[in-house]
## 1
Amino acid sequence: MKDQPSPLRETDDDARKLARVLLRSARHAAIAVLDPETGFPSASRVLVATDIDGTPVILVSQLSAHTRALARDPHASLLTGEPGKGDPLAYPRLTTQCLAEPVERSNAFYERIRTRFLARHTKAKLYIDFPDFLFFRLKPEQASLNGGFGRAYQLDGNDLVIQSAANEAIATEAAETVRDLVERHPDIAEALAIRLKAPESGPWRICGIDSSGFDMISGDFLLRYEFETLAVDANHICSNMSKIAYSIP
């Protein structure tokens, strides 16, 4: 009996970039955990943001079943990628297998995660500080990318994480960097939205930056842009964004 050909393609840079965009452009995702009582997989929907290194972050109530499950067993899978018109299976999606790490309020980077989450989910301000809510960082271990029919790839967790020594410094200056950029170029969000062919919506705003790219949001739309190479500092990020917005096509 002949060996069946592998359905997996060789993972290349294009696949890695698509996987990163699918993960970092998600505002919500389906999360699968293991029910501690039955052992069966249990799926739910969660809001998603990212930490400065691209690690997905969720905010959950301690009263929810998936939170109790993660407290018992940190293994989880996150499904990201939005379908459009027609066959939903024709659209790319990413399943990321993760280890959930709770973020205590006493943690040194708790405020950073809180700020980045609220920049993406402003309505969460109504409950983010309730005592029964907490954050989890979902550390990617490996991932399965389906880029559409016949385009399957296996990725390592490191393919989804931003490996940069500049992460912490950029995180410290992120809010000020965005504020200064907008003060110098009040129309930059609109210019970026036009250049990147963002969906027509209300006003766009920059809701996150990191070494690997930036995020913009307008209503229910979230746009993620990945730089060709990692930025080395906040000035490099601003320079990249200005070139994208204002350079001649």
## 2
Amino acid sequence: MTAKATRYLYLARHGEATADESELTENGRRQAQLLGDRLRDVPLAAVHHGPLPRAAQTARLIGDRLKDVPVRQVETAGDYVPYVPGKEELPADAAERLLAFLEQFTAQEREEGAALAREAEERFTGPVDGAEDRHELVVTHNFLVGWLVRAALDAPPWRWLGLNHCNAALSVIRYTPGRVASVLVYNDMSHLPEDLRWTGFPPEARA
């Protein structure tokens, strides 16, 4: 039997982006640098990021603060809809609003997103082969953070909806052999000063 070790998956949403999402704002760049400083002493094996500029720039800025950690682009860390529920799966009082939000995505986007979500779970979750624990960072977008946190909690597939992640906030999931997945940290912004917190988060939900 192949030995298994614990995986620590660090999830971060990209830093604050410009209105056209072509690059990070000055605040976004600072958020990424501060997140890199926070992760400097974590024994990361790799930083993975999606293909869009805001995620790629965030990952590079984080990588600049780390020592000899490879930064890799992977499509599965991109921005996509991981799952589209049927009306019968949703709470009655929220179903119409949630389905109206999802209508903006085409049938092709929905199909491709579901396939990428399956690949992301296969690539980034669960214990790892070997005797050594592995720490990995994925710099991604709000939808994928919500999807992987939902999966770790074994919540219904539709429940990625309603999970919001701030720019450059950090979540950490632990996958230990023989144990259920554990969300150790969610949407933590302790590395950011007050003026850089809560960006990218719905105003009505800010604490």
## 3
Amino acid sequence: MDSLVQLAADPTAWAALATLVVMEVVLGIDNLIFISIITNKLPAEQQSRARRIGIGLALILRLALLGTVAYIVHLTQPVFEIFGKGLSWRDMILIAGGLFLLWKATKEIHHSLDPDPEEKAGGGASLGFTAAIGQILLLDLVFSIDSIITAVGMTEHVPIMVIAVVTAVTVMLVAADPLSRFIAANPTVVMLALGFLIMIGMTLIAEGFGAHVPKGYVYTAMAFSAGVEVLNILGRRARKGKRKAA
């Protein structure tokens, strides 16, 4: 308890907490986009519950991994080499997660451009609840390990990590339904979000092979693309309003 009081009185700890919260929220955007796209393929009555379960699993995984911080740190140690490049368990997890994102995003883009006959006829959901949760859990694991390793690199105080993780996941929980509704109401945003997933997947693979990609570049590109899409949406609404007025 004394150590917690001392930590609370330390301005450096508060600065680290603020920085880590921002970092965790930004890293959570990737996870939230994937969860939104996956759950929007479920029946309407299951979507919100699936999002809550997916985000809840993300919180459980992150807190569980925080309890094994000493082990997580060792995931960055090379375990074998390929063409002279040492790969750690973290690298392999990032590569596997990146490949999964590339496969999933490419598959969803294909279905958007050329829907299955059954989907054209019925327009129903094309993904089961259990399958959706399984896919969300898989990506939760990848993003959780990346998140915890980022947290360990920024502070050595576990209470700060816990507060940052809980805060970030709470923000994800609050933003999940509005983001999913926005994506569902704007079909072009779905394609943009799938493009984001491809970019994130490529970034994970690059990170896994040791090519560091500054996150600022990635999120700046995403923000710019999202800004352009917002202008397109506003333009379409303005033209639609003029047609109605005419």
